[in-house]
Amino acid sequence: GLLSRLQTAAPTVRTLSSSKPFSQNIPSCLWKLGRLNHVAIAVPDLEKAQSLYKDVLGAQVSETVALPEHGVYTVFVELGNTKLELLHPLGDKSPIASFLQKNKTGGMHHICIEVDDIKAAMTELKKKKIRILSEEPKIGAHGKPVIFLHPKDCHGVLVELEQA
């Protein structure tokens, strides 16, 4: 009757027929990639950008902090699961000034991903022919060591790695 039809109509569970676990395809590293820390946006008018996120969108927005070593002013917008970093040039030699010359209205500048061992990451990435834009990590906006990876080696994206 009905019970035998239901039993035969029950879906079967498929299993993967591979004898190798998925993790065997992932090379072992001495360091580990962590969470997305922030997405950085270059802005031509920092006050307008702060106002958009704070007054229009209702986000929690930090005070402006100058980072002379990086040639930028930074503001962080808290999003709960990550942050936006608003970047504005600090001086004419700022990398953000040259970015804004090419992108007058601003735009995404870089992404920042945390790593558990920045020195090990640098060593291994160099072996894998990924160019790092400085010889040594610099102290970033969060007071932690950071490095930047060349965008041409990262599919057109400037990637910042930050020590977690």
From TrEMBL:
Domain named VOC is located at 35-164
Supply the EC number(s): 5.1.99.1
Concerning Gene3D superfamilies, the annotation shows: 2,3-Dihydroxybiphenyl 1,2-Dioxygenase, domain 1
Name the Gene Ontology biological process terms.
L-methylmalonyl-CoA metabolic process
Report the domain of life of the source organism: Eukaryota
Parts of the chain that traverse the membrane: none
Please provide, alphabetically and separated by semicolons, the GO molecular function terms listed in this UniProt record. Answer: metal ion binding; methylmalonyl-CoA epimerase activity
Q: Keyword Isomerase: yes or no?
A: yes
* Pfam families, per database record: Glyoxalase_4
Q: Which UniProt keywords apply?
A: Cobalt, Isomerase, Metal-binding
User: Quick one: a GO cellular component term?
Assistant: mitochondrion
Q: Which NCBIfam families match?
A: metmalonyl_epim (TIGR03081)
Similarity remark: Belongs to the methylmalonyl-CoA epimerase family.
Q: What does this protein do?
A: Methylmalonyl-CoA epimerase involved in propionyl-CoA metabolism.
State what protein this is by name. Answer: Methylmalonyl-CoA epimerase, mitochondrial
Organism of origin: Cnemophilus loriae (Loria's bird-of-paradise)
What taxonomic classification does the UniProt entry list for its organism? Answer: Eukaryota, Metazoa, Chordata, Craniata, Vertebrata
